Amino acid sequence: MKPLIIIPARGGSKGVPGKNIKLLNGKPLIQYTIEAALEITTKENIIVSTDSPEIKSVVEEIGIRVPSLRPKELATDRVGTYEVLLHEINQLEKKGKFYDYLIFLQATSPFRTGKQIKEALKLYNDNMDMLVSVKETKANPYFVLREEDEKGYLVPSKSFTADRRQDVPKVWELNGAIYIINTNTLKKKPINQFTKVKKYVMDEFSSIDIDTMMDWQLAEKLLA
């Protein structure tokens, strides 16, 4: 079965206004993700879920049809990814289109490639709830992260007897680039309640996620 790819793209953005269609090195940001998706499947299996007429127009110029905008109840900043994904699945199933799994791609990861999505797909199987892309975190809770105790003193977030950073367990940070989700699991519970989750490791460059103007400026320099 050809994979279903869903790319959510809200119109509002506080960190970088209009970032999903803002030009990054001459291309709308969302185009990088669409191009990666087209390496995996045909445009008929790619859904851009948006509440914005402007994003809809740009996406259709790129070549991906957006049949309709999200309903009003899914167009606020309080609505999470879970509700958006469920809505799109329900709409497809009403049309008789069923998928065992979906690939959720955020438009804010311009350096994630189609090759990496293919590699992640090879690691996924139907026994999982989700396969998710990660990078090794620099902020290791065993070694560098601290919390305040009841007296206001800083204590390690996780205790471990080690003198060197390389001696503590590796800790993985979700980088937001690739989520391969079991559709049946998604219908039963939200993503933060998934338990059978495995990882696909990505490098720091590919893991760049654009959330702030500093992230944007870094991406511009790297592409230049």
Question: What does this 3D model show about the protein?
Answer:
This protein is an alpha/beta fold and 224 residues long. The chain has one domain: Alpha-Beta Complex (Spore Coat Polysaccharide Biosynthesis Protein SpsA, Chain A), CATH 3.90.550. The protein contains 6 helices and 10 strands. The strands form 3 sheets. A 6-stranded mixed beta sheet has the order 4-1-5-9-6-10, sandwiched between helices. The protein has a two-stranded antiparallel ribbon with strand order 2-3. Strands 7-8 form a two-stranded antiparallel sheet.
What are the key terms here?
224 residues; alpha/beta; Spore Coat Polysaccharide Biosynthesis Protein SpsA, Chain A; six-stranded mixed sheet; two-stranded antiparallel sheet; 6 helices; 10 strands; 27% helix; transferase; Nucleotide-diphossugar_trans; nucleotidyltransferase
Task: Look up the CATH topology.
Answer: Spore Coat Polysaccharide Biosynthesis Protein SpsA, Chain A
Give the total of domains.
Answer: 1
CATH architectural type: Alpha-Beta Complex
CATH C-level class is Alpha Beta
> How many DSSP-defined strands?
10
Indicate the mean pLDDT: 91
Helical amount among residues, as a percent range?
Answer: 25-40%
The computed structural class is alpha/beta
Helix tally equals: 6
Provide the β-strand percentage band: 15-25%
* Largest sheet descriptor: 6 strands, mixed
Low-confidence regions? none
The neighbouring-strand order within the major sheet is 4-1-5-9-6-10
Q: Label the overall shape.
A: globular
CATH superfamily: Spore Coat Polysaccharide Biosynthesis Protein SpsA, Chain A
| Cα-based radius of gyration, to the nearest Å | 19 Å
Keywords: Nucleotidyltransferase, Transferase
Pfam families: CTP_transf_3
GO molecular function, one term: N-acylneuraminate cytidylyltransferase activity
Organism: Gelidibacter maritimus
